[in-house]
Automatic annotation (TrEMBL):
Family to which the UniProt record says this protein belongs: Belongs to the LDH/MDH superfamily.
Pfam families assigned to the protein according to its UniProt record, in alphabetical order: Ldh_1_C, Ldh_1_N
MF terms (GO), sorted A to Z: L-lactate dehydrogenase (NAD+) activity; L-malate dehydrogenase (NAD+) activity
Function: Catalyzes the reversible oxidation of malate to oxaloacetate.
Residues the entry annotates as binding NAD(+): 8-13, 33, 90, 111-113
InterPro entries: L-lactate/malate_DH (IPR001557), Lactate/malate_DH_C (IPR022383), Lactate/malate_DH_N (IPR001236), Lactate_DH/Glyco_Ohase_4_C (IPR015955), NAD(P)-bd_dom_sf (IPR036291)
GO BP terms: lactate metabolic process; tricarboxylic acid cycle
The keyword Ribonucleoprotein is assigned to this record: no
Domain Lactate/malate dehydrogenase N-terminal span(s) in chain numbering: 4-135
Binding-site residues for substrate, renumbered to this chain: 76, 83, 113, 144
Protein name: malate dehydrogenase
Amino acid sequence: MTSLAVLGVGRIGGECAFAASALGIVDELILADVYEPLLRAQVLDLSHAPLDIPITTDRSRIREADICIFAAGSPRNPSVKTRADLFDANLPVAEACMKHLNGFSGTLIVVSNPMDVFTYYFQKKLQIPRERCIGFGGQLDSRRFEVALRNRRMDGDGWVIGEHGEHQIPLFSKIGIPVPDAERDAILTELRGASMAVIQGKGGTAFGPALHITDLIRMLTGEKDATITCSLSLEGEYGFSGCAMGVPARISRGGAEVIGDWELDQWEEKHLHEAGGFLQSLCRRLDV
Ligand SMILES: NC(=O)c1ccc[n+]([C@@H]2O[C@H](COP(=O)([O-])OP(=O)(O)OC[C@H]3O[C@@H](n4cnc5c(N)ncnc54)[C@H](O)[C@@H]3O)[C@@H](O)[C@H]2O)c1
Ligand SMILES: O=C(O)C[C@H](O)C(=O)O
C-alpha cells in the first residue's frame, strides 16, 4: 500500500496524481490545494477515469502519506526569467504548507521552484533525514541534455548536476567523447532555455516532469533501484554544505543516498563552484 499526497494540484501536481494512479504505482491519493474549485474539479475528473483509487482531500492525512509531492505555488511565465526569480512568490507558499507536514515521516519530493532552495528549506524545517527530502529536476534536465546530444548526433548518458536552473551543469566528461568548451557553452545555453520553449508554447511543463516523478516514485517504493541526479541537502560533498543541489544519488526504498565521488573535469568544476555559491547565497535568505 502506497499513499501519495500532492500539495498543489495545478498543472504538474494534477498530472502527477493522474500519472501515478493511471500507472497503478500508488494505492491512495491525498490531494490538497488552496483553490477549492480546482481541487474539486481534479477529484471529479480523476473519479471519472476508469481507475479504482480512493481519493481524499482531508489535509490532516497528508502527514501520514508515504510520499508527498510539494507542487504548490507559482510557475514561471515568459516574463519570469529564471526559476530563482520565483523565490519571493513561493516562499510564503512553502511556509503555509509546512503546517500540513508537521510530523511527516514519509518521503517528500520537492517540485516547486526554486526547487533546490525549497528542498533545503523543508529538510531543515521538518528535520527529516536528507535521504527523504528529494528535490526533483535532475532527471528532467538529464533527459533534456540527452535530447540535445542526440540532436547533434552525439550519443551518451546525459547527467546534469548543480542547480535546477541557470546554474545547471551537464557532465560532458561522462559521455565518452571530447566536446570542446565552445560547444559545451552552446549546449548549456540551449539547456537553460529548454523548458521556457514549452512554457511559451503551452503554459507550463507537465508530461516530462510527471513521468520522471512517477519513475522516482517507483524507485522509492522499491520497484527498482537506480542512479539518478536529484537535489539533496549537502554535507560537504563536492565541497558544499548549507544548501541543496543536484548531485548523483542512488535511489531505493530507503530514499536517496548521495554519491559523492564522481570525478569532474575543469569546466565542470568551475560551473559547479558557481552553482554551489549561488545556491548557498539563496539558502542563506531562508529562516532555517
Ligand atoms: N522541478 C521541476 O522540474 C518542475 C516542473 C514543473 C513545474 N515546476 C514548478 O512547480 C510549481 C507548480 O507549477 P504548476 O505549473 O503546477 O503551477 P500551477 O499554477 O498550475 O499550480 C500550482 C498550484 O498551487 C496551488 N497553491 C498555491 N498556494 C498553495 C498553498 N498554500 N497550498 C496548496 N496549494 C497552493 C495553486 O492554487 C495552484 O493550483 C511551480 O513553481 C513550477 O515552477 C517544477
Ligand atoms: O522551467 C520551469 O520553470 C519549470 C520546470 O522547472 C522545468 O524545468 O520544466
